[in-house]
Amino acid sequence: MITLRTPVVLAALAAFALILSTPLVPLPGTAPAVAPVSAPGRADDGRRFWPVGSRPAVRRGWEPPASGYGRGHRGVDLAAVPGSPVRAAAGGRVSFVGRVAGRGVLSITLPGTGDPPLRITYEPVEPLVAKGDEVVAGRPVATLAAGPSHCATGCLHWGLLRGTAYLDPLSLLPPELLHRGPSRLLPVFGVPEPPSRTTGR
């Protein structure tokens, strides 16, 4: 009779305990089914994103005024249609949600960016977050409102400030997001080759 104290059963129980105590390691080329808690997506992970689209057209660029009250464009206008999701260009904490001059405005303060810290602003938007919320880079924080807008066909006005000084918001983005990849020569089909110099054909 086999009992719990027989060598066979004891060996099987020891092997089972060893299996349970061994950490699971994914096979090469596979990803875990559940992302770890420390996976990218925290508010301070340093990632950057376009607020709308994947590489939106800049309808109007940053034009710093000569003085605090001078003419200029204190931000950039990114082409987008009303209702488009507006993402956090960087992680941070929502510092303002409200209406300014009839437009919905959202501000996000970026921690660890100096004193005073950088602050990004979006308008016109319908916010999906509240003041004090911590937001993650790349996650939707608002939808683009129908207007009033800086553009006739709809756009997102994206601003960047340090204290009361306006900066170029595009300076937040890394080069790979600002510029397209290098040009590539593609093969040409259906075009005859030029005549050979030696044969004259």
The counted number of beta strands is: 11
| Average of pLDDT | 75
The number of helical segments is 2
Distance between the termini: 95 Å
Spans of 5+ residues with little confidence (pLDDT < 50)?
A: 12-42
Fraction of residues in H or I helices:
under 10%
Overall outline:
globular
Order of helices and strands: HEEEEEEEEEEEH
| Structural class estimated from helices and strands | mainly beta
Percentage of residues in strands:
25-35%
Provide the gyration radius in Å.
28 Å
Main beta sheet, described?
8 strands, antiparallel
Overview features:
201 residues; mainly beta; eight-stranded antiparallel sheet
Could you give the topology of this structure?
Blueprint: H1 7-21, E1 58-60, E2 76-79, E3 85-87, E4 92-100, E5 103-109, E6 118-123, E7 125-127, E8 134-135, E9 140-144, E10 155-162, E11 165-167, H2 175-178
Describe it:
This protein is mostly beta strands and 201 residues long. It has 2 helices and 11 strands; from the N terminus they run H-E-E-E-E-E-E-E-E-E-E-E-H. It has helices spanning 7-21, 175-178, and strands spanning 58-60, 76-79, 85-87, 92-100, 103-109, 118-123, 125-127, 134-135, 140-144, 155-162, 165-167. The strands form 2 sheets. Strands 1, 2, 4, 5, 6, 8, 10 and 11 form an 8-stranded antiparallel sheet that branches. Strand 5 (103-109) and strand 6 form a beta hairpin.
Outline of the structure:
This protein is mostly beta strands and 201 residues long. 9% of the residues lie in helices and 26% in strands.
